[in-house]
TrEMBL record:
UniProt name for this protein: Sn-glycerol-3-phosphate ABC transporter ATP-binding protein UgpC
GO-annotated molecular function: ATP binding
Keywords tagged on the record: ATP-binding, Cell membrane, Membrane, Nucleotide-binding, Transport
ABC transporter domain: residues covered: 4-234
Length: 238
């Protein structure tokens, strides 16, 4: 667990300003949803926290450490994407342990971490299966398993449920929320689905064209939207 601190973070692609001097403090253990319309900069912001995109100006601290110029692998974060790709020729167990193996961890430790993650995610009986032998929900759980085996300081999710059907999406919302309640890992969860944000997050950050419109609990945003944009965004159906 660790707090995440963004100070005057700016991102330009060429001459286009995508994120405008953004300040954000995410306390230790909090689940924050980052919402806003398509193209407002959610993924770019998340990718900067992950280190997959460099910061044009400003700084990012995780757990008190300035990580602005660090490689993704040195940041102690784990990211779950929308288009998570499992390795088709590897079993569930090998898929889940891969990042630890890649980091040269001892075999016994990897096996122990994989067992632990599998138990949390209800995958214990499926460790020897191959991805093609799994349902969509099970595959999504394996993708989460890959993220949690390392017990990172921060989880970053980029619309992880948007490829699932409506029923499974609702089920997985509950699972991710349950995982957070159990592990209390600081989480930044990007979604364009306001219902998802309202039901899952401790606090919601509403982003519009690279600027923060409002930060607050779901209730605060619902009861006292700061402006018409927030009201429209929170109030409209997904
Ligand atoms: P969101 O995730 O909220 O839909 P993005 O962060 O993906 O938005 O994109 C924000 C803006 O930045 C968009 O206008 C997008 O076209 C632009 N953008 C994203 N990545 C790049 C890139 N690598 N090069 C140029 N422009 C980009
Ligand atoms: Mg995006």
């Amino acid at each position: 667990m660790a707090e995440v601190l963004l100070s005057s973070v700016q991102k330009r692609f060429g001459s286009v300003n995508v994120i405008h001097g953004l300040d954000l403090h995410i306390p230790d253990g909090e689940f924050v949803a980052l919402v806003g319309p398509s193209g407002c900069g959610k993924s770019t912001l998340l990718r900067m926290i992950a280190g997959l995109e460099n910061v044009t100006q400003g700084s990012i601290r995780i757990g008190g450490r300035d990580v602005t110029d660090l490689d993704p692998k040195d940041r102690d974060i784990a990211m779950v994407f929308q288009n998570y790709a499992l390795y088709p020729h590897m079993t569930v167990a090998v898929n889940m342990g891969f990042s630890l193996e890649h980091r040269g961890r001892p075999k016994a430790e990897i096996a122990e971490r994989v067992r632990w993650a599998a138990e949390i995610l209800g995958l214990s009986q499926l460790l020897d299966r191959y991805p093609r032998q799994l349902s969509g929900g099970q595959r999504q759980r394996v993708a989460m398993g890959r993220a949690i085996v390392r017990d990172p300081q921060v989880f970053l999710f980029d619309e992880p449920l948007s490829n699932l059907d409506a029923k499974l999406r609702i089920l997985m919302r509950g699972e991710i929320k349950g995982l957070h309640q159990r592990l209390k890992t600081t989480t930044v969860y990007v979604t364009h689905d306001q219902v998802e944000a309202m039901t899952m997050a401790d606090r919601i950050v509403v982003l519009n064209a690279g600027r923060v419109e409002q930060v607050g609990t779901p209730l605060e945003l619902f009861d006292r939207p700061a402006n018409q944009f927030v009201a429209g965004f929170i109030g409209s159906p997904a």
